[in-house]
Design a protein that fits this description.
Adenine-specific Methyltransferase, domain 2, 2 domains, globular, seven-stranded mixed β-sheet, Rossmann fold, 7 strands, 272 residues, alpha/beta
């Protein structure tokens, strides 16, 4: 048990498909979580695999993507309405096109759109063009289910009394105090080497952001917080975290890169 107010919960699973999700890494991360900590802070929540596994309280989950945080908020606060609306939607290329091109105005409608596209887009990728419009093609696998009521209800229970914020990672990390625990899983951009999603990630999280994140983590440690960062296992990345412990791992890529195709992706866990 890592925290008297948290308990690893195998029944609480992510409700989103998310590129670079960390369900495969939960046991490795859990081994490094401090025995006792105050607030759990996750500034790149994405699919939230580590949060749903640890089930910590109190917890603050944040991301710079407002549609993502809105989806979390609606699942937390209005899960039955989300389920009712998702159940009305069928998986169909034409329906997908209509929903992708729609611009819903209410928070609940925006969340339903986000969840539908997340389930039915190619590889569950979230990507927008320069105009901010979602531009991933239809591409879900046979047997895909748009609405899993029990999964959504379980996630809703796990999110109760947890704080959700739309903000830059620096704002989230700066809120950490002595004894708090930060888990950061940024987009994997590297200084020199390509990865399967390099071109897109470089636009949303540049190398300068990697430098800024490392500095934020150092400052949080200096304030007495615990920090774990999962990142690409490249020497320039590891060098940003001198003084941190480093555990290296590899996994099979689930995204096909333009040049390299599917293969082994080297990652690391940095902790202090």
């Amino acid at each position: 048990m890592k925290n008297e107010k948290s308990s690893p919960n195998s029944d609480s699973l992510p409700f989103l498909k998310w590129t670079g999700g960390k369900r495969w890494l939960t046991s490795e991360i859990e081994q490094l979580v401090p025995e006792n900590y105050g607030r759990y802070i996750e500034p790149f929540v994405g699919g939230g695999a580590i949060f749903f596994h640890l089930h910590p309280w109190p917890a603050t989950l944040s991301d710079i993507n407002p549609d993502l945080i809105n989806a979390y908020r609606q699942v937390r606060d209005n899960v039955e309405e989300v389920i009712t609306r998702l159940r009305r939607l069928r998986i169909d290329r034409d329906v997908y096109g209509e929903i992708r091109n729609s611009e819903p105005r209410t928070p609940i409608a925006r969340a339903v759109r986000f969840l539908y596209l997340n389930r039915t887009a190619f590889n569950g990728i979230y990507r927008v063009n320069q105009q901010g419009r979602f531009n991933v093609p239809f591409g879900c696998k046979p047997g895909t289910v748009v609405c899993d009521p029990e999964l959504l209800r379980s996630a809703s229970l796990s999110l109760q009394n947890r704080k959700l914020r739309t903000c830059d990672f620096e704002v989230a990390i700066e809120s950490a105090n002595e004894g708090d625990f930060i888990y950061a899983d940024p987009p994997y951009t590297t200084k020199h080497d390509n990865n399967g999603f390099r071109r897109y990630n470089e636009e949303i999280f540049a190398w300068e952001d990697q430098i800024r994140l490392a500095e934020c983590c150092r400052q949080a440690v200096a304030r007495g917080a615990y920090v774990i960062v999962s990142n690409a296992n490249h020497r320039p990345i590891v060098d940003l975290y001198k003084g941190f412990g480093c555990k290296r791992l590899s996994r099979r890529s689930l995204i096909s890169g333009v040049a390299q195709g599917r293969g082994s992706v080297k990652e690391c866990i940095l902790f202090r």
